[in-house]
What we know:
Elements: H1 2-44, E1 46-51, E2 54-59, H2 63-71, H3 73-104, H4 111-124, H5 127-134, H6 137-149, H7 156-167, H8 171-182, H9 184-189, H10 192-203, H11 207-215, H12 220-231, H13 233-248, H14 254-264, H15 269-295
Antiparallel strand pairs: 1-2
Amino acid sequence: MNYGKKYTGLLKRKAISGYLFILPFILGFLIFMVRPFFQSLYMSFSNVEVSAQGINSVFAGLVNYKRAFTVDTEFNRMLTEQLGKMVVNSFAIMVFSFFVALILNQKFKGRALVRAVFFLPVIISSGVILGVEYDNALLSGLQNTIENSTGGGTSITGAIENILTTAGIGTKAFEIVFEVVDGIYDVAIASGIQIIIFLSGLQTISDSMYEAADIEGCTKWESMCKITFPMISSLLLVNWIYTIVDFCMRSDNEVMEKISDTMIVKLDYGFASAMAWVYFAIVIVIIGVSSLIISKGVYYYD
């Protein structure tokens, strides 16, 4: 009975520590985000006029939403393309980050240096350095030099792609695969945080579990399926949600670019808010459904 009380007290202290850890975010959201959140929602149902006197909103019902779905065909196309790209890239990032974390979790010389190298994408993808990267004339010139050095020839991956697509076998599937391969740089750039999360989870798995599995005659693949995956399954859910949210906030997201241009350049706050809320709602539904599916296979342990 005494042990039960101590265990309950420990759980309460852990819960309090967790809430204190996220308290700054909660306060920041309540102070700075709640009011703009509802203002944007109201603007999506209004015709917003910007003048020297300020912003005037007139309630217009579902006009902006009807315009987004029935009038502006470009938004529908961008929305469909970006959502498909989000799913494909998210799967690629999850697979890439997991296997890189497995490699970095092994014991070898220079492991700390290699881990630092794989963490560089997190630094590179930060705001200022990302802008330097995209505006860097040296990198642009280097890219052009590499392209010109090929003499217009076809690369190995390009030749394989031409053969497979010409054969007509699984054309769409191969197109998706080669798109991911061509975008491996973007996948690596977006995988830094996920690698760290997976790596932290792998390091919590006791070596004695793998030793016991080896004694029982389990293969490496069986150990991965029976030990590694269940023990880090909760982190799969965390990384999946993070990856989707991170993709939606990327600077090269066409939907976000259109929303920004509509709001900043055209000063059409009502229509921009409606498109933003449509995008937000669809992403939330995707996160909710996928999280529900993944959570059914999550193994929680103390």
